[in-house]
């Protein structure tokens, strides 16, 4: 019997399965590029961490785009918005993020300002990406949110209170762990690319395990892994 031919991405010598697995390891777990290199080496796959970085940058966005298209319209109609400080080469940036009522990341936007114009840009990006208007918008007491919402979505209920926005604030924690593991982001472009990819892959494997029994969790995890393989296969086709 002859071994089945491996599917390859165009102009790449490693099979698509290996590349997709390396990208999955990097974005799914708080691993460094060298950690992924060592995990692949243990399985007899000899690649450098620079190659893993190129795979993550090139294919991560492609996978995230496919996952975003697949999930569009399936999020809750209650959106929570928040922003966190990111220091890049000594300069302060603001990472604006939106999650739904279940903690799934809707989108993220890195900006150097924290004002109405930036809030407008985030909301326009959300409306375009989700293709729908939320029922409720939850934010902290930053007035830029109120001004932007009044201009774009005047009929949407707005709840502005720091205590109601805990889910959005907690969504920053996984990114903070990755930021420490990466020893901070090297550029604004790298940060935006990473958060755009990381959020979509994190959504796929966010299973809310504490609310599931073991059997249901295994089934959902198997389904998430199959979707990941389908996504990689669609790009390789």
Could you give the topology of this structure?
Blueprint: H1 16-28, H2 33-42, H3 49-71, E1 78-88, E2 91-100, E3 105-111, H4 116-130, E4 136-139, H5 143-152, E5 157-160, H6 166-170, H7 172-181, H8 188-204, H9 214-236
Parallel strand pairs: 1-4, 4-5
Antiparallel strand pairs: 1-2, 2-3
Structural features:
about 240 residues; 9 helices; alpha/beta; about 15% strand; single chain
What does this structure look like?
A hairpin with a 2-residue loop joins β1 and β2 (91-100). It is globular and about 55 Å long. The protein has nine helices and five strands; from the N terminus they run αααβββαβαβαααα. The protein is an alpha/beta fold and 237 residues long. It has helices at residues 16-28, 33-42, 49-71, 116-130, 143-152, 166-170, 172-181, 188-204, 214-236; strands at residues 78-88, 91-100, 105-111, 136-139, 157-160. It folds into two domains: 16-71 and 207-236, no CATH class; 78-181, Nucleotidyltransferase, domain 5 (2-Layer Sandwich), CATH 3.30.420.10. Helix content is 53%, strand content 15%. The two termini are 25 Å apart.
